[in-house]
Design a protein that fits this description.
By secondary structure, the protein is of the alpha+beta class. It has helices at 2-19, 23-26, 35-38, 43-51, 137-141, 165-180, 197-202, 209-225, 267-289, 344-349, 361-364, and strands spanning 60-65, 70-76, 82-89, 92-93, 111-115, 120-121, 129-131, 150-152, 161-162, 186-191, 231-234, 237-240, 242-243, 264-265, 301-302, 318-319. The strands form five sheets. The protein has a five-stranded mixed β-sheet with strand order 3-2-1-10-5, with helices on both faces. Strands 4-9-8-7-6 form a five-stranded mixed β-sheet, with helices on one face. It has a two-stranded antiparallel ribbon with strand order 11-12. A hairpin with a 4-residue loop joins strand 1 (60-65) and strand 2. Helix 1 (2-19) crosses helix 6 and helix 8 crosses helix 9 (267-289). The N and C termini lie far apart (44 Å).
């Protein structure tokens, strides 16, 4: 029995070395993985997995929320459903609310992304890094470009989601172990904020609202079923949990830039998601009718940081170096407003800019390709 366990552990280690050795990141395939990329999960996290009945090597889903500056790791439990494992405060994200459009706009991506083993970078300049795979097929279909958009350490971002080194060590290890469990990829869902009716009502004047409502469909599928939504792209838009119509003679084929083929939404998902959507739309309509205060379209800041890092990393939320949507948005001054979530991002959006905000010149020239 012991010998069998040893052989199994050795096989897993060999598989890890083979899967997490991207040529682009490591240069030479024979180079050994650094210890930081093979480190075991902390004892506290292993204990939490046991408490939540989550096998160590089961699949994960990562969810990112800019405005709240939070990263969630969900993990599949023994029932086959995904449950929240841990929420990590995001140390730094850059840009503004809204998707990434082009190289150099400093925007952290929003959308649904697929991470495969070759997108794991154990030798990142930012401790450890996970490439989101931007641009995905939706981004390409909408002529959006950019490269090397990551979740990484070092708490500094130029189009990325930056964590502390300790945080990315855990997240990287959870991703690594999900690959060792036999999955060839895991999903990342990146959102501007939690897609609640209240948040959408506050951002009802934002030109990205239609895009965010499209993302909300996938969000609702996940939240109502706790199953990973199947994501496809056609007609330059996301579609979720699509399957062929009954008695369809051909399998579905999606082309990101062409008209969507006839499909139906998985009935096990559709009813629950529809009920949530109807309830949310009623609440949204009431909030708009009540004229809840609208958030500014443009914050004037370069990203945000969870409030727990304010004292540790002062001055890292700066005035924006570029205006990501300047080509089609009016040049509006920041409008003071404060969310109820208490995040540093929201507090920064509400401050007066009469005082100087520190900027680190040594970091200012970093591009997203350094992630």
């Amino acid at each position: 029995m012991i010998h069998a366990m040893v052989r199994h552990a050795y096989a897993l280690t060999a598989a890890l070395a083979a899967m997490l050795m991207p040529v682009e990141c490591l240069g030479e395939s024979s180079k050994r993985l650094p210890a930081k990329a093979t480190r075991e999960l902390p004892a506290e996290l292993l204990s939490l997995l046991q408490q939540k009945k989550m096998p160590k090597y089961s699949p994960i889903i990562v969810r990112l929320f800019k405005q709240e500056a939070e990263l969630e790791v969900w993990k599949q439990d023994t029932t086959g459903r995904f449950q929240i494992l841990k929420t990590y405060p995001i140390c730094r994200w850059s840009g503004d609310l809204g998707p990434k459009l082009w190289e150099g706009d400093r925007q952290a991506p929003e959308g649904f992304y697929t991470v495969t083993p070759e997108l794991m970078n154990p030798n990142s300049n930012f401790y450890l890094a996970i490439n989101l795979g931007y641009p995905n097929s939706f981004d390409k279909a909408n002529k959006r470009d950019g490269s090397f958009l990551m979740i990484h350490g070092d708490c500094w971002s130029s189009g990325c989601y930056a964590m502390t080194d300790e945080q990315i060590s855990e997240i990287y290890s959870l991703a690594r172990d999900s690959f060792l469990g036999g999955r060839s990829s895991f999903q990342v869902q990146a959102y501007p904020f939690r897609l609640t009716p209240a948040n959408l009502a506050r951002h009802r004047n934002n030109p990205n609202l239609a895009f965010w409502k499209m993302l909300k469909i996938g969000n609702d599928h996940f939240e109502t079923t706790q199953l990973e939504p199947k994501v496809d792209v056609c007609d330059r838009r996301y579609v979720f949990d699509a399957q062929p119509r009954a008695n369809s003679p051909r399998p579905l084929v999606f082309n990101p830039t062409e008209k969507c083929p006839p499909f139906v939404v998985n009935p096990q998902v559709a009813q629950r998601a529809l009920e949530k959507r109807r309830a949310d739309e009623l609440e949204y309509a009431q909030l708009v009718a009540d004229d809840v205060p609208a958030a500014p379209v443009y914050s004037g800041l370069d990203g945000g940081m969870n409030e727990v890092f304010l004292g540790r990393f002062p001055g890292r939320v700066t005035l924006a170096k570029v205006m990501p949507y300047a080509s089609y948005l009016p040049q509006l001054p920041p409008i003071p407003w404060i969310d109820e979530d208490g995040s540093l991002t929201s507090k920064w959006f509400g401050v007066s800019f009469s005082r100087t905000i520190a900027c680190d010149p040594a970091r200012a020239s970093l591009s997203s390709s350094w992630c």
